[in-house]
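User: I've been trying to design a sequence by hand for this structure and keep getting stuck. Would you show me what you'd pick, starting by listing the structure so we're on the same page?

Assistant: Good idea, let's start from the same input. This is the structure you sent:
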């Protein structure tokens, strides 16, 4: 990863520096601009956001996302790391799971 990679967080427009060993959530916490979160292990979906630009991979094989969400660029920042500069739109998925908080 570019040593000066950044995460741009929308709609706030905040820019957060990224380190290769940090998840996207950890980077926002370190910058004092934390995303919503709860489990921090990729299961509760509280941190859900959509990648608008850049490449992100999940650290776990089965993050708590639907196939449709993955295909549309939704990620779980608590278990996701960037492969370079990333633009992330914070917000809930349009695919609400039964019993899940929106
Ligand atoms: S904080 Fe629970 S999935 Fe990210």
């Amino acid at each position: 990863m570019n040593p000066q990679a950044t995460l741009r967080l929308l709609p706030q427009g905040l820019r957060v520096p990224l380190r290769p060993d940090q998840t996207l959530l950890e980077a926002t916490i370190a910058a004092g601009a934390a995303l919503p979160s709860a489990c921090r292990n990729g299961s509760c979906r509280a941190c859900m956001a959509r990648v608008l630009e850049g490449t992100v991979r999940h650290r776990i094989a089965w993050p708590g996302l639907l196939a449709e969400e993955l295909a549309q660029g939704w990620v779980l920042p608590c278990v996701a790391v960037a492969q370079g500069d990333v633009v992330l739109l914070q917000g809930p998925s349009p695919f609400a799971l039964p019993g899940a908080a929106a």
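That's my pick for every position. To get oriented when you compare it with your attempt: The chain has a mean pLDDT of 89. Residues 6 and 17 are 4 Å apart (CA to CA).
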